[in-house]
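Working notes for the structural subgroup meeting. M.R. asked for a predicted model of this chain before we commit to crystallization trials. I am recording the input and output together here so anyone reviewing the notebook later can reproduce the run.

Input as submitted:
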Amino acid sequence: MARLADYFVVVGYEHDKQGGGDGQGRILQRFPEKDWEDNPFPQGVELFCQPSGWRLVSERLEPSFFVAVLTDINSDRQYCSCFTFWEEADGMQAQKSLLSEGDDDDDGNMRPGRLFAPKSLVLVSRLDHAEVFRNCLGLIYTVHTDGVSVALETLIGNLLTCCIPLAGGSQRTITLGAGDRQVIQTPISASLPVSGCSVALLFRQLGIINVLYLFCAALTEHKILFLSSSYHRLTDACRGLLAIMFPLKYCFTYIPILPGKLLEVLSTPTPFIIGVNSFFRSETQELLDVIIADLDGGTVTIPECVHISQLPDPLLHQTQAALSMVLDPELEVADHAFPPASLQPSALKIQDKEIRAVFLWLFTQLLHGYRWCLHIIRINPEPIIRFHKAAFLGKRSLVEDDFLMKVLDGMAFAGFVSERGSPYRPIDIFDELLRNHAERFCLKGGSPRQLTAHIKELTEKLFKNENPYPAVAMRRSQRQSEGTPVPPQSQPSAFPHLDEVAVQLFIDHATAKLKAAPPIVKAEMKCMVPSGPSPGDATEKNGSVLANSARRLEVVRNCIAYIFENKLLEAKKLMPAVMRALKSRAARLCMTQELNQHVLQNRAVLDDQQFDYVVRMMNCTLQDCSNMDEHEIAAALLPLVTAFCRKLGSGTTQFAYCCVQEHAVWANMQFWEAMFYSDVQNHIRTLYLDFKENELPGPEPSEGSEEERGALEIASEQRRLWPTFSKEKQQELVQKEESTVFSQAIHYANRMSYLLLPLDTSKNRLLRGSGLGDAESVTNSYVTNSIAGSMGESYDTESGFEDAEGSDVANVVVRFITRFVDKVCTESGVTNEHLKSLHIMIPDIVQMHIETLDAVNRESKRLPPIQKPKLLSPTLLTGEELVMEAMRVYLLPDGREEATSAMGGPPLLPAEGAIFLTSYRLIFTGTPVDPLVGEQVVTRTFPVASLTKEKKIAVSISMDQLIQEGLQLRSCTFQLMKIAFDEEVASDLAEVFRKHLHKLRYPQNVRGTFAFTVGQAGGMVVEQKSKEKNQTFKALSKNLMKTAKKTIGRQYVTRKKYTPPTWEQRSSFQSQLEEDEISVSEELDQNPHTLSSTMKPVDRQTMSNVVERACCRDYQRLGLGTLSSSLTRSKNEPFRISTVNRMYTVCRSYPGLLIVPQSITDATIQRISRCYKQNRFPVVCWRNSRSKAVLLRSGGLHAKGVADFFKTPNAPSAGPSQTDSISLEQEKYLQAIVSSMPSYSESSGRNTLSSFTPAATSSSDASDKLRQPKIGALMKQVMGSREDVPSGFGKGGKRAKIISYYHPRASEISQNSARGKWGSIRGTGQIAQLAGRDPPQANGSPADTHFLHPQRSYLYIIGDKSQLKGSKQDQFQQWEVVPIEVFDVRQVKTSFKKLMKACVPNSVSFDPNTAYYRCLEESEWMCLLHKILQVSVLVVELLDTGSSVMVSLEDGWDITTQVVSLVQLLSDPYYRTFDGFRLLVEKEWLSFGHRFSQRGAQTLAGQSGGFTPVFLQFLDCVHQIHLQFPMEFEFSQYYLKFLAYHYVSNRFRTFLLDSDYERIELGVMFEEKGEKRGPQTFKSVWDYIERLNKKTPIFFNYMFAPEDGEVLKPYSCISNLKLWDFYTEETLSEGPSYDWELVQSRPEQQPDAERPEKAVCVSRRRVVWPCYDCHSRVLPDAITKLLQELQSLEMELGKVPEKWKDTWDKIKSTQRAESRLESRASSRSLLMSSNISHQRRAQGACLHDSMMGSSINLALEAEGGVGSSSAGNLGSRPSTSTLYSQFQSTESENRSFEGILYKKGALLKPWRPRWFVLDKTKHQLRYYDNRQDRECKGVIDLAEVESMVPGTPTMGAPKNIDEKAFFDLKTTKRVYNFCAQDSLNAQLWMDNVQSCLSDA
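Returned structure, recorded in token form:
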């Protein structure tokens, strides 16, 4: 029984308060005046009566009621029920109160005449009966106001003396003595919260999602603040939140109503649930870590810094669905065609219990099986329970669940375990659910309807708990308004002062009566708490089949059996499979069980190799265990590591624990605590089982069930029997339990010292990062000697400190063990005497173990070292030298799964071998660790110069040795080396390796690269002397250049070239360079058109070398300049070769000779060059041979200078200035380019599109007009949306819209398609659409007016939109600016890094956000290629229409170079040959100054800039074009890969420097001329390719069959682009194949070598391993294979092998001759098909619906092309659209068998050889005069054949032929006599004909 109310308090307004501020309340009266002994009076009640503050009001307010909750120091809650009403204050009091409140208003009108003060009646109780207290206080107030003749003291006395039971489901009727009667129903279970309607109201106010957020936030200990203008709602919301947390109880600050004066409580760092009135909303805005729930607005605000862990996904979804069914039952049937009549939600009280039932089900799912993870460590005198969190999470497979982890670590769950962990106690509804309903509530096998039924059952139980007698109604007391109404004029009197003596008499009388009554003793219904199903049941039922694979477990068992049977070779073969199998939990548990079977009497002695295998498996098992050991693997291994051992000699034994210390779990204090408690529980259980055998009192269990009883069951029985024991027996049990705990503490002190002390304590290894100094540490990084103690030699011992360091290690371990012992012994109730003895014992245990380890360490060093594979020496190039000797390492697997057997095939990685650092490459060579493929050789290598990133990595792999230190090396050749240094490699040696690698990667200058040091003895040895020498060369060269520059002045330039003396001799050219003196006059001659006028005769020898460069050769080929012996030009040509830059004074990054307009002087060039970035002024680089349009390149415009010319071309100025002069000269320069075009000079006036009429122009001009819409669409794609285009681009608003289009004839379409080739099989079609843009216009339809001008410009300037922003176009100009958006080099660099990580990831990831295609998309590499190709195709279109184009982007050496190179490649077939592509790269990339050194970070100066693959991007674009047009390129894809590899390898000098100027300065510009090179040393990659191309066709494209003058127009959409296999392919058998000498020097595996010795037939099939074999060598194409066999046959016959190119040319010429004799093309010959005219020769052409339409449409377009071609008489060349129709099968091509037979003619005709063809399709035997004959001479119908027999020679038969070669064929008409070449051929003919007859 308990008092219904403890205190009654009257609180009123404090009128006598002094000072300013808000009013205050004070306690007027309190009953009783003395505190109860069991419940002191709470302080601060007056604050909670008016939480918003005490104030006077001008109007009487309605009485209010709410319940505030106060928490005392013992965490007991007291419920303060506040009933507040308002009384009128008299005038003097009101005036005094207003003055005290500090009213600052001067306006007297604000002071009312009548004021009302609040007064509160407060009941303080420990019971939460809010409705009872509301009625009681309301009754007291009603009696006062209505003047009922009942004394208030009587009512209060009866209220304070009323006692009711706490629980039990009883009902009690109470009365206060005023004719009232109330029935109080107590809940059945005291543990279940009473919620009323609070939970349902909370969900109605906030909704399901918001309440679930608050629920998770409360369980994970966040701060929660409720806001509302209603105090009653605040209390209900907090009560409802606590109710749904059952069975957990909230343990932190809980204040449903917080007074305004205590708002600083919100700043507390601890979690809380607090309610605040909305009046204080503004003061809560600054709370950054508080979750605010607005009950009035229905919102929950979560700060950004707060992360709320959500429920696990299946449970979250199921909970939301169940709540939806409860709150909105109509949702389930809303879509039904025949919904039920009505589905209304339940009543509020029922709905409240339904919601709580859902949360009870939720906690059942979360916590089921928790009792299986309870450790009982003491039973008597009181149970001590601990929860094994790691085991619970492991069995439930919820280790990664953040929500459950936080809940289990929280205070609420700790209280849950403390309260509910006892094995013998009363049980409630939650315990019953865990026992009976765990499986019923599992939704995985049930349906939502079953869940609804279970929830209804729970709802009934919860409702009955609160309302055991629902039929009994509580009578409400009469309110004042319900009786006689009070007139407004009548004023109720003030609440009277109560008589304290009268009330106290009531209380004293009731207290005395209670003491005299006999105590009521109610027996508690205690029983054994059920454990429910095991938490592992659900996991086992739904576990992965792979984890429980019986085959894997069998492999583990067999391997362990082989080890202990001493079949070590078999065990070695199975070891890799065992290592992979041990990734699963089942296999690890199986291993511990199997090893446990081989332990006899806690000891198992093994030999050395057995010990190594067992320790290796233990390490592999532990490395995948977390520090929590959730699967209890480390717990199972803990007794085994102290059992397995080996003898080292002289009585020394080494245990396995010395070799398994490298795991974080041993340093985790929580692991040791869980292990300790588990072992203590087992010993306590054994203790009481022994007592049972000694006839301990109690019921006898059944036979065989005693051993199966758990510790909790035994503890429950012992707690039941405890009161029946005598005190002596009880004391004996307590002492035995305490002794058991004490003995286990000693045992674990020894165990911990075993696993925490390193083998060699003198090295101070433990202190380097063990983490043992922190009790909460979960990591352990100390290193021990794992196998045979071989690591001890790798570390230097610091002399003089060994003893001190050893003692430090001991102290750390002693402190760690002492902390552990203090914690577990204090919790387990160990006596202080035992604890002190443990403190004394621990240092002795540690010291004794250290002495034992010293002996083990000494003996382990005497063991023979581990047998390791022999290191393989790599093959080096000529001139390549080793910088460091081999270091033994392991090559670890990366994110590519091909080499790890994850995608099938052998596990090639990890591999054991050595890494070699040479002057050129970084080489790993070794063998796989897996013995099944141990005979294979694994090689991974890349050039040192291609290294982009190097970082240290932590390694955790299971090898024969434990390895921790590793490096990750990433190369821009898409190679990744993850190496782990062997234990024999000292850490300082690894650091030396890193330093040498860094020096080689970033030399001081370009002379330090391999291309310059190759062949020089000791050139790459990193020595200070050599380094200073190189620096001297560079400094001397720079000083000479500076001296030359100083002598230039304003008149002449004089320069002398310095040549370093250490380079190879350059024969006669060396002396020429030493005498190279060039004088150039800056004040040029009046006649600028001749070179001789500006040069001295002595310079012409040097200039002749310049003329021989690629630029001049290409200029002469294009007709841009014809140089005579006198170096003069004809004035009639529009362009000239200028020597203004021959001294590289105008632009250092340009070549010495440039093409400029004929009319432009060199002086003008010097001035206008200042307007462009890097002085890169516009120069001509290519001219269209048909339209004579030219392609120019330049740098971007400066912000000032010529940019102003474009922005304001005709702006008036006050006077001439230098800027205006330059602008005019710039305009003249551009006009000179326009004037050089033939179309401009031939036309009269302005050349417009309207002037190109069909009658007045050629067909080429007509096709130009046809291409105009295409150009408009391309411009729209390239330039972006309409808003991005400058206003001047549309040529003046409406004028641009008036465009007349010319509809071409079919003949013109045919000619147009013959001139250009789009990336598709079609005649006409649409332009490729840019992804994400508007669809392009159809071919021939009007394009957007903003992208197509009515008048064609003669010159288009492609510029950067950001630089040309705001430019205006002058309508009188002959050129037009096309602003486009371009990317910068930083984007390229970032994209390339992401591309490398996508193609070569460093680890396998299962995150979908890091999947291969997702990473490839995020790299945006394809988007960059798309943009480059798109701009290039636009320029090609413009040039093809006859307009010149100037590309003026960025600095002119990155994107500009890419675009102009691709434009020339697409437009000119010459550049698609070997010579042409070399010339293109030399001209546009080398001579025009692409910054190879800076972009490739080739020297130390460029290290900070990083690697930017601009040239690789260009090669990738060429690769994309090559894929779409494979028959247009003379070179193969391998040629592009070769260049992509070696442009970063620094093996050749070709791509080293940034410009011709730097090459001349360094003396390498003309070094190849006349130079005598070594046989294997090449300085130019082109020479190397040329020489290699003569030996092998590796670079040649067999499909090469170009069309004359064809322009390629590839698709540039991302969907048409393919990822280059150069980025993903790998050959682990030999490494990259781009160093051809190394490939040829490797011995080829000859699988057919043993065939001659075998009599049986051996299969020619061969297994090709992915990522290991080189596919091109193992599976060569047919032509390469034939050429190789031909060469082999020639060598066997003793002939000199003919060069492959000569053989190929002969075959081609023969095929051409034969093809001229054939009437139709044959598809049987691949060689012949390469000569057929074709259109798009793509390997597998892709048809895209978005652009092409269906294949039927394509066929129709192709037929139209054929018809128009024949109608237009455009020549003998067939249309490209009819190419593949020639590959269709014809009658003559149905040849089943063919050959030469002699046939005897009819009558007297002689025998004649004929070419016979057996056609099984038509059942014919046809014959021709010869093989090439296409006209059939005769046909034998096989249907007429009667028989076929061997024949005999007749008159005139061929001589010297066997008689068996004759056979006769008899038909119904005649007999045919045949003769074959021999008997074998005759039999073949007879068999084939007979077979054909049989088939018929």
